[in-house]
Amino acid sequence: MQTYKIAVLSGDGIGPEITSEATKILRHIETRNAIRFDLTDALFGATAYFETGTSFPKETIEICDQADAILKGTIGLSHEDSKKIPVDDQPERGALLPMRRRYDTYANLRPVYLPPSLAHFSPLRPEIIGAGIDALIVRELVGGLYFGHKTMGINDDGKRFVHEQLEYTEDQIRRVLHIGFELASKRKGYLHNVHKSNVLKSSVLWNEILEEVQLEFPDIKVEHVLVDAAATYLCLDPSRFDVMVMENMFGDILSDQGGGILGSLGLMPSACIGPEKSYYEPSHGSAPDIAGKGIANPYAMLGSVAMMLEMSCNMDAEATNLWNAMQNVFVHGFTTPDLARRGKAESVISTAEFGDKVLEELDRMPVPQN
Ligand code: NAD
Ligand code: IPM
Ligand code: MN
Predict the structure, then answer these.
(1) Are 72 and 65 contacting, i.e. CB atoms less than 8 angstroms apart?
(2) Is 146 a catalytic residue?
(3) Whose CA is nearest to atom 7 of ligand 2?
(4) What are the two backbone dihedrals, phi and then psi, of residue 326, each rounded to the nearest 5 degrees?
(5) What is the pLDDT, as a whole number, of residue 343?
(6) 72, 106, 168, 252: which is the annotated catalytic residue?
(7) According to the model, what pLDDT value does residue 210 have?
(8) pTM, 2 dp
(9) Is residue 72 annotated as part of the catalytic site, yes or no?
(10) What are the structural domains, with CATH classification, of the chain?
(11) Tens of pLDDT along 210-234?
């Protein structure tokens, strides 16, 4: 039987709560398909640090190295609790960025998607959100400010200073733009290039390379938009966007704004694609404010599972079933608390109940015939 080895990194905060819904779904998918998921749990993040003294332990690295794909929950502590860990060992710098670098997961796909049936979740007025939104942020994930050279110290005047470089090579830019163009060809045939070339030299190089890559995709219409204006258009007219490609830091910020226009960060899944290995995680964080209460919305995590099924397990039909099942739970009047305020008299359910209802909905879907 086809078997996929999956490293499961549940992480911190709401990570374990939403990850256990993800594994529940994977186990259920095994019962419907001739497939096996060899799931291996591994410590990652602050939880790993407190248990082993490092956020990305050697055993975890080995498990990830051997996996076909990695499914990650969330990492990170609250602002106050972060101070319990030395800056360079904190889960963001000590685990997540090293994982992105190790597997060179350069293309981070973050769908900003609300089908018409769920458009009421958006805080945007109906005349703006219209029949929902279907945009896709393609975020460069292993370059830029995040990975540039960093120094902190005392200058000649005895003042503290910090120096943080934004670095890109042309190859790094070209490969993510390629993904942007390819996705635009498969979707609506246009691409928004989000940049800041009026100030940043990195964007000047980015745009130069974009013009070169564009020659390979003569049918794709490119719209250039400055990142600050893009933030406004996302609020005022989100339907103008389809595929949006951008560098690392811009993508971090605009994708959380994406969560804002959908109505919750809990609706933002993501896939982090590397040349050999990909990993899948929700775009949101560990939500320390709601952790341990069983009320987190697992949709972003389960959507990340759907992206894994499609992109790492060759299971497109079952991925579509999972998306539909998740949306049907909402359509049938259930919601987690994050979306209840904008719901239509929904019954508010827990993280685990949401997972159970997804299983019920999945069972109403035809089993794919391979
Ligand atoms: P956050 O995304 O954790 O939370 C922001 C807000 O969104 C909170 O009110 C939270 O309750 C809500 N929220 C997020 N996900 C939700 C869900 N699934 N269901 C319901 N509500 C949800 O961002 P933050 O508070 O700025 O960061 C908390 C920690 O998470 C920090 O340590 C940060 O570094 C880390 N972080 C990790 C990742 C990751 O693992 N990839 C991503 C972003 C932030
Ligand atoms: C994300 C997160 C990470 C990022 C942090 C936790 C390092 O915010 O995945 O969006 O900034 O990339
Ligand atoms: Mn982020």
Answers:
(1) no
(2) yes
(3) 92
(4) -65, -45
(5) 63
(6) 252
(7) 98
(8) 0.98
(9) no
(10) 1-105+274-370 (3.40.718.10), 107-272 (3.40.718.10)
(11) 999 999 999 999 999 999 999 999 9
